[in-house]
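1st attempt posting a full record on here, be nice pls
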Amino acid sequence: MRREDVIKQASTPLGAPAFPRGPYRFTDREYLNILYRSDREALEAVVPEPLEVSDPMVRFELMSMPDVTGLGSYTECGQAVRVKYQGEQGDYLHAMYVDNHPAIASGRERSAFPKKLGSPRLYVDSDTLVGTLDYGTLRVATATMGYKHAPLRAELAHAEIAAPTFMLKIVPGYTGGPRICELVRTQIVDLEIVGAWRGPGRLQLFEHALAPMADLPVREVLATSHIVTSLSLSPATIVHDYLDDGRRRGDR
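the predicted structure (as tokens):
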């Protein structure tokens, strides 16, 4: 395979890449979001500088994505911490658990989504919207919400989904040190709100060594939303390079 053909590939292995090049379109992407108050000390322990914890709030999000071009159907669960960067309010995407390998690989390689393998589910149980996350055979999170109790204004739903998002990308070099260590920013701008609702919500997080969601404890549930969208993701841009301090990048 010629050089010019190699660099056109989306991923490895050559001839059967882990994911297609994209772009990806998400149709009927469904969110269960629970915004809760947590402990400032716990958040400051995991939020990297130069981000600042603005208010000690976390958004637990569980997303069902039944129709994604190139990636198929999958479900995702994560935690996003409310932060500020240079005066801009946004969310720091702390962790994500996903049940689809192409989505994990593309999210990590093409962007900086902190994805690892998990088993999230989003479903309706009688009059309750339920979101769960299992890691292996163990339950890590259970979220519940009254099903479509009241409408949520489209502009509020749009602001919730389209908030600026910050992520940390770390790629190790071949001798052990970091080859890439960057803080990046992205924001969804191609977004259609299909439906949005609010209602009572509850969230339980269970201790797990390798899926430590409970390290960001739930002190008070502040708001709960159920939002259905169609959208496309925007590319990430670098806002801070942790290696840009004069040190030699010997692992390149």
